[in-house]
Design brief:
This protein has 152 residues and is mainly α. The protein folds into two domains: 91 residues, Uncharacterised protein YqeY/AIM41, N-terminal domain (Hypothetical Protein Yqey, Chain: A, domain1); 51 residues, Arc Repressor Mutant, subunit A, CATH 1.10.10. Helix content is 76%, strand content 0%. Helix 3 packs antiparallel against helix 4, helix 5 packs across helix 6 and helix 5 packs across helix 7.
Length: 152
Amino acid sequence: MLREKIDDALKAAMKAKDEKLRVSTLRLITAAIKDRDIAARSEDRCNGVTDDEILAILQKMVKQREDSATQFEAGGRPELAAQERSEIAVIREFLPRQLDDAEIESAVSGVIAELGASGLKDMGRCMGALKARYAGSMDFGRAGAIVKKALV
């Protein structure tokens, strides 16, 4: 289970007295998961969040940090951008391997052929199928651009 893997990594990092950045990033991940657990309890789900929801939390954290790093670079703060990128590296340890552009293009063409998509009106169906099959391992921003280019 992903939650246990993250907890074990935090315990190991604290015992090994790893760098502060790794420990703090793992604590941030744990806190985000606990926040979502609390929200899930209010939705009458006693078991907390699932691994799929944890993957979504991690992906959101990566996206937030990528956006922050871009902003810091634009603002002339490369040291803060480097810190954000270091946090991204720690978070990505718990995400599945991301597909590269060639693999995304292959998946997109397969879904388009399977669904018989012929125009932009079918983009939502294609993206839905991709999200169902490749959750956690595909950058859907890049995939959306590839789908749109293929359907135009």
